[in-house]
Amino acid sequence: MTQAPDIVIIGSGIGGATIAAGLAGSGARITILERGERLPDTPEARSYRSIFVDGHFRPKETWRETDGTEFNPGNFYYVGGNSKLFGAVLLRYRSQDFTEMQHLGGVSPAWPFPYEELEPWYGKAEHLFEARGRLGEDPTEPVHSTPYPHAAVPDEPVIARVRAELKAQGLHPATLPLGVDIDAWLGGGRTPWDGFPNTGKGKKDAETASLEVALKDPNIELVTSAHVDTLEAGRDGRIEAIHYTHRGERKRLVAKLVILSAGAINSAAILLRSGEGKGLANRSDQVGRNFMNHNCSAMLAINPFKRNDSIYQKTLMVNDYYLSGGRDNLPLGNVQLLGKINSDILRANAPRYAPRFALDFMAGHAVDWYMMTEDLPNPESRIMVDGKGIIMQWRRSNMEALSGLENKMREHFKAAGYPVVLSQAFDKRTPSHQCGTVCMGLDPATSVLDPWCRAWDHSNLYVVDGGFLPTSAAVNPALTIAAQALRVADHLVKTGLSS
Ligand SMILES: Cc1cc2nc3c(=O)[nH]c(=O)nc-3n(C[C@H](O)[C@H](O)[C@H](O)COP(=O)(O)OP(=O)(O)OC[C@H]3O[C@@H](n4cnc5c(N)ncnc54)[C@H](O)[C@@H]3O)c2cc1C
Predict the structure, then answer these.
(1) What does the pLDDT look like over 30-39, one tens digit per residue?
(2) CA–CA distances in Å: residue 162 to residues 93, 192, 416
(3) How open is the CA angle 334-304-186, to the nearest 5 degrees?
(4) Which of 35, 18, 453 is nearest to 257 (CA)?
(5) What is the mean pLDDT of the chain?
(6) What domains does the chain contain, in order, with CATH numbers?
(7) Residues whose beta carbon lies within 6 Å of some atom of ligand 1
């Protein structure tokens, strides 16, 4: 592209690539600056050991806690962002998630608009990501005005049996909506896809779904290895330039419109590092605050007399305790299958002295579940920066919901014939469902973005990654981020891409 772009998008993950897809064909000249490179197709991409023990795909980066403790985050910098390794669960927030809701640990605030506003965009996002699902099984399912574009991924035999066992207890196990063409995926290797990097073999992620559409437009270009450092604002409050480092060279790019989508944590960090004092877009002092990440645990339901020979496993969820079931009948959360674990994954999380045969036996007889409960917004749960470093002060909330959900499901799994049930919570090293940090809202004094994801303080700056989410709900976030990105793209086109 020889002329200066009209729009610069920072980050090619779910938010950035999907807004680019929504803007394709608009005539706007768009440059996407992406810090990572395309994920290479190497044998490590299907190796449990390389991924989960050696951390082959993890970044060579450390973040810090406020007490100075360093950790290596599972935050992935590739074209397509975190979605390259995602579980491809394409769930909509439930309609109640858009309203104020009392939880065990406090109140989850209302969104600035109701579910109905996002509903058509959810349908378009499901279409873009070629979602495979089945309606009518889940009691919490919100209204869908369009069906899933493809039939559901089938349960493997063991999982079909688990579905029947849970149904027999009066639960409503439902099919997980997924962005996976299972034959194409298994053609690339007989592994699960959850946590496995996608090298273009059947998983629909930000690169293989959204970016592929966007880059068909000759006006849209992708620049990789372009690490955005700061934004520069003019006296009138407009963002005048983007400063980035491209293969070691410092560069400055000017555009009429800037769409930040570096992920909830990195977008907050870029804003906090920019400008002077409190950073940019931060008149409200809310940038970096209200960091949320779901409270999750892995739960292994083990029957020592039944092998689980599933390959991918991840086709079921249970939402019977999503809206009720806790103390005072308050909400607990979502339960869904993990991708099938093996002994390498257990080894990465077990004491070093755990014998191999014991881990093999456990993995071979476990059905592996993922418990997910809502993390509530809290201004003291925040991302901060120290020069180039990122400091995470995650104040987890609503933990009673996680233990309540584990207790309920432990009883169900035991009643279904799994006498041994083990669980382990995910911690800060897994910021997979990061959100908040630049929440949208109706009041510039208490939010960073308006309901179209435009910064209250800068008329030509938008943020469309998970940072805009005012609540984490208790379902996987990617489809909601994609739906909002498409909604914002449509708004930009209808308003003449003006700022
Ligand atoms: C292992 C795993 C499993 C998951 N499973 C699911 C699932 O099943 N369903 C679901 O809904 N969600 C899942 N998620 C979460 C989902 O992937 C994220 O919610 C989603 O990718 C967030 O989109 P985003 O646009 O906010 O950020 P990302 O998709 O992470 O995109 C951010 C992009 O910005 C780039 N970037 C960062 N900093 C800079 C910079 N300074 N300059 C330039 N570029 C930059 C990054 O490289 C990246 O490409 C999972 C995540 C992980 C890690």
Answers:
(1) 999 999 999 9
(2) 25, 18, 8
(3) 60
(4) 453
(5) 96
(6) 7-494 (3.50.50.60)
(7) 10-16, 33-36, 74, 76-77, 81-83, 85-89, 195, 206, 227-228, 261-264, 266, 270, 432-433, 465-466, 476-479, 481
